[in-house]
Amino acid sequence: MTEQSKYLPRPPKKSRRPAVKAEAIPSVVPTERPGPEGGKRAENRRTKANLLASAALRLMLERGIEAVTIDDIVVQAGVAKGSFYRYFDDKEALVRGILAPLEEPLHEAFTRCRRALADADRGPSLVAPYASFAAEIAHTIFELESVTRLYLQERRGANAGARRPIARLARFIDDSAETLAAFANARGLTRPGDSQVSAAVVVGAAEHLAYRALLGETQLRSPAVAVELIAIILDGVRLSE
Amino acid sequence: MTEQSKYLPRPPKKSRRPAVKAEAIPSVVPTERPGPEGGKRAENRRTKANLLASAALRLMLERGIEAVTIDDIVVQAGVAKGSFYRYFDDKEALVRGILAPLEEPLHEAFTRCRRALADADRGPSLVAPYASFAAEIAHTIFELESVTRLYLQERRGANAGARRPIARLARFIDDSAETLAAFANARGLTRPGDSQVSAAVVVGAAEHLAYRALLGETQLRSPAVAVELIAIILDGVRLSE
DNA sequence: AGAAAACATGACTGAACAGTCAAAGTATTT
DNA sequence: AAATACTTTGACTGTTCAGTCATGTTTTCT
To answer: What are the φ/ψ torsions at residue B232 (nearest 5 degrees)?
Structure first.
């Protein structure tokens, strides 16, 4: 005996909002305010978007992006399913939102480094920009551990569905590394060789190390590890003869 | 007007196989022959298992393990859905089957290398075992490009569902690398430092380079790239002063 | 204050999916 | 050749999921 009435819509009282078409809905980004001001509503909006994003992030780190459903997310966040779709168009948009705070500083760091390299054409310390770049990135990564871990975890794999924003970032990182490596090579900072290879080596090494560190292998989390990484990249593992 | 009769089971003629319980079904591995000989049946079995596995591999490389459904696989392979379940218990078992030919030679190469290192205690060329190891692995990887690519693509991420066998292999590789790095370090082959770090660096660099190469970036596929990878790992990218 | 607009809710829909099974087909044995 | 054991098939079931929408609630505007 299924109780039908339980599943019927709540009894109508007054239709206060008759058939508004979907034009007013904020489409992609949750922080995009559709109409008003900086009052209570805007506050709630931010709070709820963050609630959803951080619930999603937690689940995705546990189970992987694809295994997490919208229902999982709303249950974890403690909101209704319909609310999710007020803040994000779909899972891909959500991932875009989650990744944004990581993407921005990376873009900036890269741009800054490239400019610095262009400026300091043949100054004595052409190495300084690289050092700043590394420091900035390290700072960002540890500022945004969970997001970084999500990126590292889902970095490879098909550029489809919810993983598309991650593939985009991965591509940007590969390309940036190659640009910087090519520059270093052209200026004679590094041994001659294919800069695509050295870029891939550096990215692969740094990302894998970061991934293992962020996974919680505590021995890998000391600042000394970053120093050692740089030492190995610069001078290799071989004991000098 | 749904045509009911269309969806009814085909009309019974003679039940030639009355209610056999599921005990006779070959459970996990498709190559495990349930009864008879080495005749035509065994041949068909192998053929079909390979058909399913390679169809699945193709799809998984395109879309990622999780996005591929059993229906996708059987359509691609051109067999009925029920047949899939005669050969594999589920997607995880299938992935296990796909990975097996890669896992075996890797296990062997590692075991061989460790033994060689243990034997050649303080001989002059303690480096030779590492060189053979690298050569063996390179050979295996390029022998099994697609499987390797699947491994690299799905290597990280949650240890759950169909990805479990891949996580297992990833873990084995990380651990093996660490063992070999620790050995090299203890024997004074490498500069002092945390061997966990150097192991992670080597694995990360090699895997990322292999991944990019297998993705089809043709400039990265020459044998010179492997040489350059080793050079960078041994001596770094820095131009000697 | 009241009106209007944005926001929240969760039952509901239709599609997609993993896994099953009775019936029909094919190799192997006797 | 007939019986037997293994194999194939695809319609079917029950479940899970993304996305919708009518109704109810809160904030903002006037």
So the answer is: -65, -45
φ and ψ of A238, to 5 deg: -65, 140
Instruction: Please report, as a single letter, which amino acid is at residue A175.
Output: D
Ordered by start, the domain boundaries in chain A are 33-88, 98-235
State the Cα–Cα distance between residues A113 and A133, nearest whole angstrom. 6
pLDDT digits (tens, 9 = 90+) for B187-236: 989 999 999 999 999 999 999 999 999 998 878 888 899 999 999 999 99
Protein-covered nucleotides on strand D (Cβ within 7 A): 4-12, 16-29
Nearest residue of A to residue B67, measured between CA atoms:
A66
Residue B106 near residue B173 (C-beta atoms within 8 A): yes
Protein-contacted positions of strand C (CB under 7 Å): 4-12, 16-29
Which residue, among B225, B184, B193, B190, has the nearest Cα to B208 in the 3D structure?
B225
Phi and psi at A3, nearest 5°, equal -80, 100
Distance in angstroms: CA A236, C1' C22:
66
In chain B, which residues have their Cβ closer than 8 Å to the Cβ of A202? 205, 237
Is B39-88 a CATH 1.10.10.60 domain? yes
Query: In this structure, which long-range contacts are made by residues B38-46, counting pairs with CB atoms below 8 Å and at least 24 apart in sequence?
Result: B45/B87
Is there a contact between B200 and A208 if contact means CB atoms under 8 Å apart? yes
Closest in B153, B224, B239 to A191, CB measured:
B239
Q: Is the CATH code 3.30.360.10 the one for domain A33-88?
A: no
CA–CA dist A33, A25 (Å, integer): 10
CA distance A119 to A4: 73
Structure token digits, residue A56 = 């999603």
What confidence tens digit (pLDDT) does each residue in A109-130 have?
Answer: 999 999 999 887 666 678 899 9
